[in-house]
Amino acid sequence: AQTVTQSQPEMSVQEAETVTLSCTYDTSESNYYLFWYKQPPSRQMILVIRQEAYKQQNATENRFSVNFQKAAKSFSLKISDSQLGDTAMYFCAFMKPYNNNDMRFGAGTRLTVKP
Amino acid sequence: DAGVTQSPTHLIKTRGQQVTLRCSPKSGHDTVSWYQQALGQGPQFIFQYYEEEERQRGNFPDRFSGHQFPNYSSELNVNALLLGDSALYLCASSLVGLSGNTIYFGEGSWLTVV
Known about the structure:
The complex is a heterodimer. In chain A, β5 (33-39) and β6 (46-52) form a beta hairpin. Chain A is globular and about 40 Å long. Helices cover 0% and strands 50% of the residues of chain A. In chain A, strands 2, 5, 6, 10, 11 and 12 form a six-stranded mixed β-sheet that branches. Chain A has a four-stranded antiparallel β-sheet with strand order 3-9-8-7, with no helix packed on it. Chain A is mainly β. In chain B, strands 2, 4, 5, 6, 9, 10 and 11 form a seven-stranded mixed β-sheet that branches. Chain B has strands at residues 5-7, 10-13, 19-24, 31-37, 44-50, 53-57, 64-68, 74-78, 87-94, 104-105, 109-113. The mean pLDDT of chain B is 92. Chain B is 0% helix and 50% strand. By secondary structure, chain B is mostly beta strands. The chains are: A mainly beta, B mainly beta. Chain A binds chain B through residues 4, 33, 35, 37, 42-47, 50, 52, 91, 93, 95, 97-108, and chain B through 31-33, 40-45, 48, 50, 56, 58, 88, 90, 92-101, 103, 105-108.
C-alpha cells in the first residue's frame, strides 16, 4: 500500500520569503504521479503542481517548484516570494498511473504567510 | 464551463439515518471519485465510478455505496450514520485514461452527524 507522510503539521513564513514543505512517500511502484494540492478555507482542493515519476526534471509552476528525489522517495514543495493568498492547507498526494482519481493524501501542512 | 458541482453544501443528520450526496462532474469528464475528509486530516479515497460501475474502492464499509448515472453524475449514499461519519465529502472528476492534472475537485458537502 502507498503511504504519504507530511511531517510538518504547521509552518509560517514572512511575505515575500521562501518556504519549503516536506513530503515523503512509500511505494513499490516504479512509475507514478505526485501532486501538491492547496486547500484554502473555501475547502476546494486546487492543484498546485504535479510530477511524473519517470521525468527526472523537477516540475515548476511560476512561484512553485518541487524537489523530487525518487531514490529517497521525497517530494518537497518550494514556494518563492510567498504571498498572503498562499495561506492554506497544503496536501501532498500520490497516484498510480491510470488509477484515475484514486489518490492517497498526506495529513497536510498548514501554511500561514505573515505580512 | 462549470467545474465539479456538489450538493448539498451543508447538512445535519441524526445517528442511524441515511444520507445521499450528489455530484456533477466537470463537462467532458466520465469518471467520478468520492473522498472523505475528516477535520484536520487529508482526504481518504472512498470509491471510483466509471461507466456506471464501481471500479475501485478504498477501505470503507458497505454502509458507503454509490451510483453513477448515464450522464456521468454520481451519488454517494451512507446508511446507518455514525458520529464518525461527520466530515467533508469531496467529489473529483476526470477523463478516463488521462491522469494527473485532469483531476478536478468540487467544493464538497459538509456532513454533520449528531
